[in-house]
Amino acid sequence: xxxxxxxxxxxxDNQHKPAVxxxxxxxxxxxxxxxxxxxxxxxxxxxxxxxxxxxxxxLDGVEPSKSDPGIELAAALExxxxxxxxxxxxx
Length: 91
What we know:
- The protein is of the alpha+beta class.
- The protein contains 3 helices and 4 strands, in the order E-H-H-E-E-H-E.
- A hairpin with a 6-residue loop joins strand 2 and strand 3.
């Protein structure tokens, strides 16, 4: 099954960007062993302090859900601002 785990951070300032990049890079380095096919960091085109992390998953026999790495990443990012963590599947 394929799905995307999306974590959006609405931070109070731009000081968080280097730390978020480092956390996402660590996730990308571990992707092969986890079933992660890609992890991408996005920034909102209009709200400078919004960042989105998209983690693409592909695992056979597994139902889409929030992953342990995604939950850990969201928890680590809570110190930067408000977090929105969701799962998306193709319709």
